């Protein structure tokens, strides 16, 4: 087999695997590792005409060094996408925390998510929406475009990915607050109102009424936030693509 074709395809496959293992929605643990490897191999073969053009075979040391660099590139790009979409799960965690559902948290071994009801609901909904829409295709498009700006074995200047990661983490927290913000404000005002009611009429035991009231408010307003998830996922997909392009 021609090494001038095999080597770049292997390097591209390593970058693909490193990205798919970390970046949503492909990183979901319910997907077998064999399927992820086959997907990465198929994508590497698909981009082979672009990555093999002008490629020069390396010696053994240079090839293994290029493999390490491709792992780093794939991990960095996948982490940036992961951080952007973590805003949805973080919004669910904030809702669970302020509504009192955090006491019922559990660990999901498939998604590797440790959270309560809204955390897992938002995470699974985001996963389903990414596959039902064209979000996953756009993410793969951004990954394939990385070969145009980051050549095989070229590596990354870590200053730009570090700055992009800091910006992505900051944006993740802001997005989580924006998603869950209206519901958090209502729950906070409910706590304030119950506290004032308890001071005015202690015999009513307002805090005993607080649990069913907060559950009612959370389920009612949480459904409004849930209905906005498709638009939120679309916006986060564009943000993830722009974040990837910043480091290329």
What's the mean pLDDT score? 83
In terms of per-residue confidence, which ranges show pLDDT below 50 for 5 or more consecutive residues? none
Total count of helical runs of at least 4 residues: 9
Beginning-to-end CA distance, first to last residue: 31 Å
Number of domains: 1
Radius of gyration using CA atoms only: 23 Å
Global shape:
elongated
**Share of residues in strands:** under 5%
| Beta strands, count | 2
Series of secondary-structure elements, N-terminal to C-terminal:
HHHHEEHHHHH
- What structural category do the secondary elements indicate? mainly alpha
| Main sheet strand line-up | 1-2
Biggest sheet overview: 2 strands, antiparallel
Residues in helices, as a percent range:
over 70%
Give a quick set of tags describing it.
9 helices; 77% helix; mainly alpha; cell projection; single chain; 248 residues; cell membrane; cilium
Textual characterization of the structure:
This protein is mainly α. It has one domain. Helix content is 77%, strand content 2%. It has a two-stranded antiparallel ribbon. A hairpin with a 4-residue loop joins β1 and β2. α4 packs antiparallel against α9, α5 packs across α9 and α7 packs antiparallel against α8. The longest helix has 42 residues. The radius of gyration is 23 Å and the shape is elongated. The protein starts with a helix and ends with a helix. The mean pLDDT is 83.
């Amino acid at each position: 087999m021609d090494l001038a074709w095999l080597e770049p395809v292997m390097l591209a496959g390593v970058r693909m695997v490193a990205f798919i293992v970390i970046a949503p929605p492909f990183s979901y643990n319910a997907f077998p590792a064999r399927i992820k490897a086959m997907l990465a191999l198929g994508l590497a073969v698909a981009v082979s005409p672009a990555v093999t053009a002008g490629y020069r075979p390396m010696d053994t040391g240079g090839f293994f060094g290029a493999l390490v660099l491709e792992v780093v590139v794939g991990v960095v790009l996948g982490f940036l996408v992961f951080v952007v979409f973590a805003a949805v799960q973080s919004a669910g965690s904030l809702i669970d925390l302020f509504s009192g559902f955090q006491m019922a948290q559990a660990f999901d071994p498939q998604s590797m998510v440790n959270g309560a009801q809204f955390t897992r609901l938002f995470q699974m909904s985001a996963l389903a929406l990414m596959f039902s829409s064209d979000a996953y295709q756009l993410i793969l498009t951004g990954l394939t475009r990385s070969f145009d700006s980051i050549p095989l074995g070229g590596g990354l200047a870590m200053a730009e990915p570090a700055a992009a990661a800091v910006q992505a983490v900051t944006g993740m927290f802001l997005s989580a607050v924006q998603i869950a913000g209206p519901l958090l404000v209502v729950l906070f005002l409910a706590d304030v109102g119950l506290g004032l009611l308890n001071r005015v009429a202690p015999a009513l035991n307002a805090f005993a009424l607080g649990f069913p009231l907060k559950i009612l408010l959370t389920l009612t307003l949480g459904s409004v936030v849930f209905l906005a998830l498709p638009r939120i996922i679309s916006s986060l997909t564009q943000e993830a693509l722009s974040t990837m392009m910043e480091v290329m």
